[in-house]
Amino acid sequence: MEKEIAKELLGIKAVFLSPDEPFTWASGIKSPIYCDNRLILTSPEVRDKVEKAIAASVKKYYPEAEVLMGTSTAGIAHAAIAAHLLGMPMGYVRGSAKDHGRNNRIEGRLEPGQKVVVIEDLISTGGSCIEVVEALREAGADVLGVISIFTYGMKKGLERLDAAKVENHSLSNFDTLVEVAADENYIAPEDVKRLRKFMSNPSDESWMNA
Length: 210
What we know:
Structural class: alpha/beta
Oligomer: single chain
């Protein structure tokens, strides 16, 4: 599944590799990878595969789940479609509480003690995902874990998830994507080492001249 999802993400350029002309992240880091999983929603065939894979992962890893909660905003649609396939209720967690009405941060019905799975589109450093999990825990939810579409597998992100006791299962990941990209001729074979060097330490720009 990891390879199939990676191939589909590359095909619609939801994940784009450009080692010779790197992108600049908000932090200023030069990156050979750009990820925009929102493009999945505009490709019905790929969307169908991804949502079915999310639903299958929920059943495989968290069969006792009672509610799916999407991350705002990119995870909301994926949580809704997967919940529909599974016949489960869903909701989502805002980045911050509303400043009007009932001041909700969590949208949708959530009862204390309910077993929740978070649906996330992308995990890099893990910060936003952990915030969502903590908000749900504060509301009394039993958060079983996270199903994400793609993860960079950064050391910092993995360490933060582990420290927060957040379990994540991704449909695909950076290492698999690089392997598939080389096999499918999206990148040259010699670029594989450069890309993996970047991921080992994104702040070290020596990968560009490797």
